[in-house]
What does this fold into?
Amino acid sequence: MTSRELLSPSGQDVVFVLVGLVVLGAAVLCVTTRQLVHAALWLVVALGGLAVQYLLLTAEFVAWVQVLIYLGSVVVLLLFGLMLTKAPIGPSPDADSGNRPVALAVALAAAALLVTLVIDAFRTAWIDLDTPHGTAEQVGDSLFRTWVLPFEALSVLLLAALIGAIVVSRVRSRAGGDR
Amino acid sequence: MHLVYPAVLAVLLFCVGLYGVLARRNAVLVLMSVELMLAAVSLNLVAFDVWLRDATHAGQVFTLFLIALSAAEIGIGLAIVLLVHRARGTVAIDELRALREPRAPQRETE
Amino acid sequence: MNTTTAAVLVPLLPLAAAALILLTGRSAPGYVRPLAVLPTLAAAALAVLVAVRQGGDDPIDAATRLTPTGGIPVQLALHLDGFAVLVAVLVAVVATCVQLYSIGYMADDPRYASYAALVSLFTAAMLLVVYADDLIVLLVGWEVMGICSYFLVGHYWETPAARAASLKAFLVTKLGDVPFLLGILALATDVGTFRISTIVTRLTSSLSDHQLDHPTLIALLLLAGVAGKSAQFPLHTWLPGAMAGPTPVSALIHAATMVAAGVYFIARLLPVFAASAAALTVLAVVAALTLLGSALAALAQDDIKRVLAYSTIGQLGYMTGALAVADRDAAVFHLLTHGAFKALLFLGAGVLIHTAGTGSLRALSRMDGLRRRAADAYWTMAIGLLALAAVPPFAGFFSKEAVLTAAEHTALGDTHGAPAVAGWLVLVAGLLAAPLTAAYAARLFLLAFYGPADTRPDPVPAAEGTNPVMTATLWVLALPSLLLGLSYPWLDDWWDGGGLGPQLTTSVLAVAAALTGLLAAWAAWRRAWSDPAPALLGPLRAPAAAGFHLDALYTAAVVRPTLAGARLVRFLDRAVIETYVRGAAAAPGRLGALARRAQTGNVQTYLSAVVAGALVLGVAAVLVAAGE
It folds into this structure.
């Protein structure tokens, strides 16, 4: 809260913008690269950058969870998915569909609209980062006091997803699938 | 820190994910783009939670939930993709057109 | 059983028989014959019983109101006077004879069950008309007869002629029935009741002094229905065509039921008609035209049944003539005798057709031995034709004599009520038609049965022998044809008592005319042993054979414009209206085809469209918010 001017950034702002550029660049590479495995790796970079952003926003618990779950498991899952669907190693020319120009137009229009709106709406909003707001203690406190019921419900949902994934994978193989 | 920074980053990340969903051909890549969109939403939640100094940490808790949900989603999604791959031999979503209108529609008998 | 109960049973028995036959005819064909004959026979016996009980005394009235009908009440009412009971006897007896005869005649017909049921229903309807005292109840019977005649004339619906004839019979009689219905409603509104007896009492009683507001209009409307049913000019054209039905049906329709209904109806409502001199004059003109035209046409016909059909029209002309001079005794007397001898003639003709396999007089005149093979038909038809030709002492002579006497009285102004001009018309036409009638009767008889052997080279086809029931029926009917005329002194007591006995002047004239006709026909036939019609009719023969081209006239005046109108409507429907309909279907179809092309099956396209739409909505929302 040392400065309230847009053009007088603090150190955190600078770091945030730099890491943000990395995240954005990694994301763009992730959705444009012709090498499928590279796409997954660029995703790792983008998500890891996001974890840094969380840390900058003093949400350290979320940041570690992001690293653990996203980087540790989701990306591994995606890599397994690529492997199991026999994705080619090396550039594949048909990674993008014919819908690409439309997609580009829609994405750019959405970006323009949303960026305009967001900047217009939050011009004068500042985040106070001097006191941390997302330590493990704080978040854990809230999680197991206020949000304990949704948390338990979520465990059921995860169980259901687990069983669902197994069932979806099994039915075919028992019915005489090709594997 | 200015709130616009994370907000604009989230918007751009979301639009990149949107582009990926709309433009990618491989179903696994589409799932990755969906992850990008979810991550953008997570960033938004965290940024606004910190900005608002919410006593219950609703935004961050929601982010946690979102991460769990996306894990579940990616598990189910990959299972489906694998199934499609096994059944059709391809995961190119513009080739999965079983629901399209037939080329030579029969006009009077419908 | 009191008289009223018996009278109620008379129409109900054939009705129940018809219902039973229709219900069980298919499953139990063995019961059809007893079911057809016995109820009708019982009805005939009951009708005789009712007639004897009534005995020409004061009329018996019975009425019950089934349900409130609002306005003028409609009642299930009976009115048994001398006319009703005697006509009912005639109807029931003729119907019984027809049913008996049909057992033999229709023995091999696959649709005998439905035929018998319809004949029973027809009989029931006619008996209802005869006994009914309520105009609406009468109308019910009247219309049931119409539909039954449609079915019966079209009994052989495999042939196009029968289909056309049945449709024609139905449409032409309906053409008369529409004004008839209007007339009934107008009459009831005028008098304030549907009860015939009440209407007659109000109109004839000197105490009430009730006058109809529009007597001519009502009478002419009713007359149209009567002309349709009783086959009077110009609505008579359905009747010769109705010969396409089975012969017993012709006997039933022409002798006792349908055609008699019109005459009987006027007889019941004579005071209504007598209230309008104009209506009586119209009736007289119709009768005169019918008499002369039908007699000429009958002389020129080749088919034996068509000869009889035209003769029926002519005899009905005598009846309407009698009504035109306001003498219903004579009309109903002729109705009774004609019913007897015409039924006899038709059934006899049926035997001839059955034996010879054809109804054409030209073919019959070339057949040898018909007299021997159909001896019963020969003798009974001789009686019937003599009655038809009004030769004393056969039945037709006395009844026709009564008609002519009544006409003469009116013409000379002896009676009040009917205009003298009507009397003259009927008298002259009746006397002119008498020799023609005798001539065609003689022609039919001579051509069918007589002639030297060398002019009759063809043998009679070897058909199976005539059913004894059929010939017995002929003799049963021959009896009244022979004797009914002599009963006029008693009939006087049953009816109005106007005197039905023959008078010297008209008797001499009529007998002379009849004998002239007979002799002329015989002479013309004797000269070349051939059809006397060309010699007698001369240039009139061709138009007479075609029914004076009245059908052609109707075709030009009614049928063609109707068909042209129908074609126009069809064209408008197909070319104009249907275009809109097709367009209304095709336009959404094309739009749908366009919408279809968006269904590519590509999820990314769909999602792009959804997101683009959401963007448009978002921009719109922002712009709206910014504008406020």
Remarks:
- Residues 95 and 123 of chain C are 6 Å apart (CA to CA).
- The mean pLDDT of chain C is 83.
- Chain C touches chain A at residues 602, 604-605, 608, 611-612, 615, 618-619, 622 (CB under 8 Å).
- Chain C is about 75% helix and 0% strand.
